[in-house]
Amino acid sequence: MLSLSGEVYATGAGGSVITTDVRYGLSGQTSSLVAQKDSYYVTNTISGAVSTLYNPFSYVYFDKSIFAPPVVSDVTLASGASSVNIINTDPNYYIVKINYSRLDTGYSAIPIKATLKNSAVQNGETFHIPVKLFEAGKNPATDAPLASSNDQFVAKAYPVGIMSANTSTVASNNRKSEYISDDATNATNDRLSTDFVSSLFGYGYSGPANTANGGVSQVPSGTGAGMDKRKVEFKITLPATAVWDPSLPNNSDWTYNSADRTITQVVDRGLGTVLQPPFSLKWDGNQPVTLAPTWTKITMQQVTTLVNDDGTLDNSTRRSGDLYYHVSYVRRIRIKKTLLGEGGYLVPRDADYKYNYLVSVDQFGGTRPQTASSVTFRMIEDEP
C-alpha cells in the first residue's frame, strides 16, 4: 500500500538535503487535459554535504483507475537517467522505475509523459502522482526512500454538446435526412401520415464550449479527448406537430413532460466518443412535407448538461443547439415517356409508324431503393 503525504526529504550529515517531486513540464500549465499525453518532470535536488548519489532510482506511481498504461518511451533519458522499467504487477499503480547512473549536487529534471484516461475523472477533479527516490540496492517494498512527494494536479475535461463550426447553422452530425413515399403521407401526399414513425436521435460530443453558437468545438488535438466521466442529461423539445408515444421503439428510457413538450434522458456515456440516444416520433397529421428535391426542415432544440454524482445538474456545463430532421416526399412509381429519334436518342423512327416512345420507370423503395424488385404493367393508357 502506498502512503505519502506532501513532500518528504532526507537530511544527512553536514546538513545535506535531498528532495524529489513531480511537476508540469510546461511553464504556466495548471491542468491536465483528459486523454491528452501531458508532459511532466520528475525532479531531484541534492544540496549540502552529499555531493553524488551513485545508481539511485525513482519510483513514479500512476493510479491504474485513471491513467492509461505508460510505456518506456514516455520517459526521456536526461540528467543522469540511464534506463527505464515499467512495473505492472502492483494492483493499484503502474510504476515507472527510472534508473540513474548518478545524481550530482544540484537540480535535475527528467521529462516524463502521462495520459489520463477518458471518462475516468471529471473536470476540476484533483489527482496525485507520487514519487519516491531510493538509494542503490534498496527494496521499495520494505526500505524507506531518500525522499518522496505526493504532488497534486487538476484534471480538465469538456462539456458535451452539438459539434459545429462557429458559422454553422445546420451541421451534418445533428441532422437526419430521409426520403419518404406514399405510405408515409396522407392521401394528397403533402402531410406526414399519423401512422408514420420517424426514428431520430440526439447528438452529443465532448469538446470546448463554443461561445458563438452554444455548442462545442472539435478537439484540436484529436477526436475524443477531454471526456468527462459524468453522465449526460439530454433534454429535447419536440415539434408542435409531433406525437409522443412511450410504447414506440427506443422511447422507454425517455421521460416526457407534456407541459413543455420535452423528453429527457440521462445517459451513461462510458467510453463513447459520440452519444446518440435514439427516440421515435409519430405525427398529428398537420406536419407538412414537400415534394423532392425540396426538403422540409423540422427543428428540435436540444440541451445537454453533465450530471453530478449526487444527481444534481452542473449548469456550468450546459450546452444547447438544434437537431434537424429533413424529410422529402418521393412518388412511389415515376414514369417518363420519351419520343425516340429526337433529343439525341440514337433510335431511328420506324418507317411504318410516325411516333415511337420509350417508357422508363423508377420505383422508390425507401431510403435505399430495393434491389431485384420489379414493376408489372397491367395497362398503359395514353391521352391524345
Structure overview:
With 384 residues, the chain is an all-beta fold. The protein is built from no helices and 27 strands. The protein has strands spanning 10-11, 17-24, 32-33, 37-47, 52-54, 57-63, 81-87, 93-100, 102-104, 106-115, 126-134, 147-156, 160-161, 175-180, 198-201, 204-206, 231-237, 242-243, 255-257, 262-267, 274-275, 278-283, 290-291, 296-307, 313-329, 333-339, 357-363.
Quick tags:
384 residues, mainly beta, Immunoglobulin-like, seven-stranded mixed β-sheet, 0% helix
SSE order and pairing:
Blueprint: E1 10-11, E2 17-24, E3 32-33, E4 37-47, E5 52-54, E6 57-63, E7 81-87, E8 93-100, E9 102-104, E10 106-115, E11 126-134, E12 147-156, E13 160-161, E14 175-180, E15 198-201, E16 204-206, E17 231-237, E18 242-243, E19 255-257, E20 262-267, E21 274-275, E22 278-283, E23 290-291, E24 296-307, E25 313-329, E26 333-339, E27 357-363
Give me the secondary-structure category.
Answer: mainly beta
User: Roughly how much helix do the residues carry, as a percent range?
Assistant: under 10%
Q: Rough shape?
A: elongated
Oligomer: single chain
